[in-house]
Design a protein that fits this description.
0% strand, globular, 9 helices
């Protein structure tokens, strides 16, 4: 199921690349937002209220809300923008059409987040391992004060922080087109992940 017509052929973009025109994208986004300002405010209220509920929920309910509700709810904003780019009329209910492809959006967000977090964690793992004995020894003894952190753990964590951030930024960028590809190309979650990776790295 596509939103607003047949999928467009993206093979040319993957073959020949593309130009990134930031000013054009910002201007287009601003124009779209201005044209749907009234319903966007309503969507923002719903999204903010959902976020506040998420903050108040205990684990694991907060986790389930983050995993199951936010991805399709966020996808709704992409769907509305996509329809406006095609010159179509949008309604407030369009913001919730991400739930029609619930599985694709949820799995795409979950898998891409897992890969991003794991990629960053690899560089922090040596410092975490060095810190682990201190954490185990001080468990249940916080009333005695904050334990001394080994210098080795501090150094390893410090050295791993920059590459961890770099990897997180890189992977997040590689996955930035997942939702648009599910919407525009009618892809399943894994195809959207791999094609987003290919599209970004074609002109990273």
């Amino acid at each position: 199921m596509t939103y607003g017509g047949a999928p467009r052929d993206m093979s040319r973009l993957l073959t020949y690349g593309y130009r990134v025109r930031v000013e054009d994208y910002l201007a287009s986004g601003w124009n779209i937002e201005q044209s749907i300002l009234d319903i966007s405010i309503g969507y923002s209220v719903v999204y903010t209220a959902t976020s506040l509920i998420w903050l108040l929920l205990p684990f694991p309910l907060d986790f389930l809300l983050a995993v199951l509700v936010f991805p399709p709810l966020t996808a709704g904003a992409h769907i509305v923008a996509y329809k406006r780019l095609r010159g179509e009329t949008v309604e407030f209910t369009d913001f919730f059409k991400g739930f029609k492809k619930f599985i694709s959006f949820v799995l795409a967000q979950f898998v891409s987040s897992l890969v991003t977090n794991f990629g960053a964690l690899i560089f922090l793992l040596p410092g975490i391992i060095a810190l682990l004995p201190t954490i185990i020894r001080s468990a249940g003894q916080l009333e005695k004060g904050i334990p001394d952190i080994p210098a080795t753990a501090v150094i390893l964590l410090g050295l791993g922080l920059v590459p961890a951030l770099a990897v997180a930024i890189y992977l997040s960028t590689c996955f930035m087109f997942i939702f648009p590809l599910i919407i525009d190309q009618d892809l399943d979650f894994w195809s959207a992940i791999t094609n987003s990776w290919r599209l970004v790295n074609r002109n990273f």
